[in-house]
Amino acid sequence: MITPVLIFDEKVYARTIRRVLLNVGVGVDIFMDTAADRALGSAMYTIKERFEAEGPPQWKELAPLTRRLRTVLGYEPAHPILVRTGELRDSLIDYNHPLNIHRIRDLVKGPSGVLGTKDPRFLDLQWGTTLEGGNIPARWMWPGLGSQEEIDMMVGMESVLIALLWETSSYRENKEIVNG
């Protein structure tokens, strides 16, 4: 019986590791240029779906006074909730809306995306508030922090990023460099 012998050349191994790390770094830089933007797009899509479905969790019906006011102003009385002109929704999902906040920042640990709105109504409508004469219930346009829905949304964004990674030709080219 022949016993295989492994010959280990430390210099060759070190050069190979450096080459692989360099190529991975190049691939990550190229990928990250579009990944954070894709993740923000996925989050915006989730918010758009929430406005269309009025939840989850299901948004509470509008108060009778609000329904009457909407009717007087020429809008449908009950639906869509949180949408009269579309300004609030659009400020969250339209990159070009003047109140939209979307930034991708390069941080030490990688790019970080920021998504939000400058619309002053957002916080009261998201979290709910007490007003003189009544309450505005919370209507979650963005999933609750730490909720299963937020976790599911993050997993969904991760899936989008993985799909982007596999479809990116620059990744395939770098994979060939690493394997070649």
List the helices and strands and how they pair.
Elements: H1 10-53, H2 64-72, H3 87-93, E1 100-107, E2 110-117, H4 122-127, E3 129-131, E4 134-136, H5 148-167, H6 169-179
Antiparallel strand pairs: 1-2, 3-4
Helix pairs in contact: 1-5, 1-6
Brief characterization of the structure:
By secondary structure, this protein is of the alpha+beta class. The chain has helices spanning 10-53, 64-72, 87-93, 122-127, 148-167, 169-179, and strands at residues 100-107, 110-117, 129-131, 134-136.
Description of the structure:
This protein has 180 residues and is an alpha+beta fold. The protein has one domain. It is built from 6 helices and 4 strands. Strands 1-2 form a two-stranded antiparallel sheet. The mean pLDDT is 75.
User: Beta-sheet strand percentage?
Assistant: 5-15%
Enumerate the strands of the largest sheet in spatial order, edge to edge or round the barrel.
1-2
The outline comes out as: elongated
Number of domains: 1
What is the subunit organization of this protein? single chain
Structural class: alpha+beta
- Tally the helices: what do you get? 6
Please describe the biggest sheet, giving its number of strands, its sense, and whether it closes into a barrel: 2 strands, antiparallel
Number of strands: 4
Provide keyphrases for this structure.
two-stranded antiparallel sheet; 6 helices; two-stranded antiparallel ribbon; 180 residues; 12% strand; alpha+beta
